[in-house]
Amino acid sequence: MQASTTAAADSTKMEGFWSSWKCQAMELLYWRDLKQTGLLFGSVLLLLFSLTQFSVVSVVAYLALAALSATISFRVYKSVLQAVQKTDEGHPFKSYLEVEISLSHDQMQRYAENVQRYINSTLRELRRLFLVQDLVDSLKFAVLMWLLTYVGALFNGLTLLIMAVVSMFSMPVVYEKYQAQIDQYLGLVKTHVNSVVGKIQEKIPGAKRKAE
């Protein structure tokens, strides 16, 4: 009974944590706090640009050295300051050292189940596309892969990741500001695509979906 109550409490706590995390992520992407978003955006871009010039091992090592230099210097500074002022404030990072960061067995099991669900769903979708369960969807997937061959020839993975980060921090704000116009154009594009797909379904035998 006690274990069940503890598991329920952990589940509620984690749900609240993820809900809070999502809200904070949305605030960052929509630039609600210019200072925080700018700092995060600049840091991520700096990291990605560093990876274009140095290896992953070098970047991780330099970041670790920079963090250790900052924390060790602060620890030594606080120790000297306490010795001079003859105070006993304790470890400067005591509040952070006491924060619980471990995951319970139930939390790990829940995360594993979510990952398993996503993997199974992806495998089923790939099987459906490659074995042509629906001809139109498989053709769309083939066109997408064909377009990606050109994208891959023009950009490497890091360049695409940088573009994705820039889009992630810019598109939400642009959409929020010009939502009506963007929705209008997207509706026109969707209508045109559906029209083209409908014509293809009529001309290719077996391409037309069966009525539900």
From TrEMBL:
GO biological process terms, alphabetically, are: brain development; endoplasmic reticulum tubular network formation; neuron differentiation
Location within or outside the cell: Endoplasmic reticulum membrane
Q: Which InterPro entries match?
A: Reticulon, RTN1-4
Membrane-crossing residue ranges in chain numbering: 39-68, 154-175
Topology in the lipid bilayer is annotated as: Multi-pass membrane protein
UniProtKB keywords: Endoplasmic reticulum, Membrane, Transmembrane, Transmembrane helix
What's the superkingdom here? Eukaryota
Task: Give Gene Ontology CC terms.
Answer: endoplasmic reticulum membrane; neuron projection; postsynaptic density
| Segments forming domain Reticulon | 25-212
Q: PANTHER family, per this entry?
A: RETICULON, RETICULON-LIKE PROTEIN
Q: What is the protein name given in its UniProt record? A: Reticulon
Q: Which organism is it from?
A: Astyanax mexicanus
> Which classification does the entry list for the species?
Eukaryota, Metazoa, Chordata, Craniata, Vertebrata
